[in-house]
Amino acid sequence: MGKTVRMTVAQATINFLGAQHSESDGIEQKLFAGCFGIFGHGNVAGIGQALLQAELEQPELLPYVLGRNEQAMVHSAVAYARMKERRQTWVVSTSVGPGATNMLTGAALATINRLPVLLLPADTFADRSASPLLQELEQPYAGDLTVNDAFRPLSAYFDRVWRPEQLAPALMSAMRVLTDPAATGAVTVCFPQDVQVQAYDWPVELFERRVWHIARPLPETRVLAQAAEVIRNAKRPLVVAGGGVHYSGATDALAAFCEATGIPVGQTQAGKGTLVFDHPQCLGAIGSTGTTASNAIAAEADLVIGIGTRYSDFTTASRTAFQGPDVTFVNINVAGLDAVKQAGLSVVADAREALTALTGLLEGHRVEQAYVERYTALDAEWESTVTSVFAQPETDEGLLSQNAVIGAVNELSDPRDVVVCAAGSMPGDLHKLWRTRDPKGYHVEYGYSCMGYEVAGGLGVAMACPDRDVFVMVGDGSYLMMATELATVVQEHVKLITVLVQNHGYASIGALSESLGSQRFGTRYRARGAQSHRLDGDFLPVDLAANAASFGLEVIKARTMAELADAIKVAKAGSEPVVIYVETDPFIDAPSSESWWDVPVSATSTLESTQQARTTYDEHKARQRLFLTPPRVP
Ligand SMILES: Cc1ncc(C[n+]2csc(CCOP(=O)(O)OP(=O)(O)O)c2C)c(N)n1
Ligand SMILES: [Mg+2]
């Protein structure tokens, strides 16, 4: 028996986590920047005691940050991890029951976006001595089940430490998955309340500094040669760049590939910034919320080269974006799951490695000049559309358009500043309009598009990048869903600029509802009418500016463009968090993507609006394609 050290399961866990590092390209950093937490009886005396002991005795080990909502803490952690290209994240500690299950939405968001976060929900007693406990779920059909089993389908790895002996293998597996570029996501390790406080003699090696290498899997030589041949034979190839390009640190490799070959790029939400907006090969957003340039080129492409993309419905315009009669796909992705999509030639590899090798193999190859001229002209056309909507004046009622608000923030922010958003009409509008001038300048969570991510995510971004200003763009609906982390922003002295866009309800779902024949039903924040008994009465007198001010931060109300511009300048010049409150007209849309999104419409209805929408739906649906044919390798 080697040397051991006696401590509790919780103390061992915190000591272990504080000693973990990630390594990529020779750069080592701590895997966990710290631990967000909210204490309850499930964790206060176990993990909580261990965190206290660590803060007093080893303050750098795993700094503790108190959040306000468990879901929000996961959002902050995930946003942080995204800004750190998945090389560093946070631990999130919660109590049992509601504290734990509040994290479920965050877990789903992390796993869907393939972003690492370590969740440590507390769990019911392993020895069942006092069951049923406060907040314990009892099911007549199973004795070993707890609410935490709900994390299983949402986690990239799930474990529960019933006995101290299980701790080391559970933690090792958790680290393996967090640092695996293909498998990463929410990693959940549950800690029964009584187990957290048990003492055990741990081998000292468990707590030694440990470095987890983040792999860059190389492409298979033969497959890559085939990919190069397919690209050489394409007349109108198009790259679809996703978040994987960022996580691989492949933005320079992508630029080199595109400059050498002349192949243009459409970007997914997570892939925006992979080329800066004015790069000659950058056509901006692609798909349902894409630019007309990307979408026109997508419609004609004979080859799509997907790099680090999941091909979500927004990216493929629900499989209507690519209309070339013989279009095929080559996919570069670390995850086999994504590489095989659309019957593509699968290059299962790290994006940077594969792109660099491909550029070499394609030396001397360039697409035809006529193609370059065509996409360059389409791109210029879109840019002038953006310029014109950014300059939209106030309406006759004195309201700004959302386009103009986005334009002002874009133009008055510094190139390295970061814009953050997640749900509502703004993600789509930002995807189309935002001129990204730095690879990390655009942070829209659109894998889960979770209302409530905005402020919490903005906090995580600002903590990850203290050298950049962070602009959170949040609609009134998302703000009402979860503005709570403004309290944490104040607590942590984080400079966060929140632009709160008030349009009294859901501009996004309202417009969607109308387009689907559902007449904007139930999408505005209005009181129930005394006569009609419907939600068509007065607009609610809710004062969100006063609400924001109640968190103890400065709120600037802007009505006109001049006031908005002033507010942004004041916020940027200061070092404190600011909320800018602005009312917009929800009926002014962003310029059209000339694209579609598959949202099914009732097949039968007594409403004429629904019947008409169904006819339109059927027309679009007929254009949807399956893509079952792999590329022909010459
Ligand atoms: C948690 C969650 N619930 C519901 C939705 C569906 N949804 C998407 S956008 C939206 C409305 C957002 O309203 P707001 O933040 O005011 O933005 P706006 O649409 O007005 O731009 C809703 C309800 C969602 N994305 N996330
Ligand atoms: Mg709104």
TrEMBL record:
<protein>
    <submittedName>
        <fullName>3D-(3,5/4)-trihydroxycyclohexane-1,2-dione acylhydrolase (Decyclizing)</fullName>
    </submittedName>
</protein>
<feature type="domain" description="Thiamine pyrophosphate enzyme N-terminal TPP-binding">
    <location>
        <begin position="52"/>
        <end position="135"/>
    </location>
</feature>
<dbReference type="InterPro" id="IPR012001">
    <property type="entry name" value="Thiamin_PyroP_enz_TPP-bd_dom"/>
</dbReference>
<dbReference type="InterPro" id="IPR029061">
    <property type="entry name" value="THDP-binding"/>
</dbReference>
<dbReference type="InterPro" id="IPR045229">
    <property type="entry name" value="TPP_enz"/>
</dbReference>
<dbReference type="Pfam" id="PF00205">
    <property type="entry name" value="TPP_enzyme_M"/>
</dbReference>
<comment type="similarity">
    <text>Belongs to the TPP enzyme family.</text>
</comment>
<dbReference type="Pfam" id="PF02776">
    <property type="entry name" value="TPP_enzyme_N"/>
</dbReference>
<dbReference type="Pfam" id="PF02775">
    <property type="entry name" value="TPP_enzyme_C"/>
</dbReference>
<dbReference type="InterPro" id="IPR030817">
    <property type="entry name" value="Myo_inos_IolD"/>
</dbReference>
<feature type="domain" description="Thiamine pyrophosphate enzyme TPP-binding">
    <location>
        <begin position="423"/>
        <end position="582"/>
    </location>
</feature>
<dbReference type="InterPro" id="IPR000399">
    <property type="entry name" value="TPP-bd_CS"/>
</dbReference>
<dbReference type="InterPro" id="IPR011766">
    <property type="entry name" value="TPP_enzyme_TPP-bd"/>
</dbReference>
<feature type="domain" description="Thiamine pyrophosphate enzyme central">
    <location>
        <begin position="224"/>
        <end position="358"/>
    </location>
</feature>
<dbReference type="InterPro" id="IPR029035">
    <property type="entry name" value="DHS-like_NAD/FAD-binding_dom"/>
</dbReference>
<dbReference type="InterPro" id="IPR012000">
    <property type="entry name" value="Thiamin_PyroP_enz_cen_dom"/>
</dbReference>
<keyword id="KW-0786">Thiamine pyrophosphate</keyword>
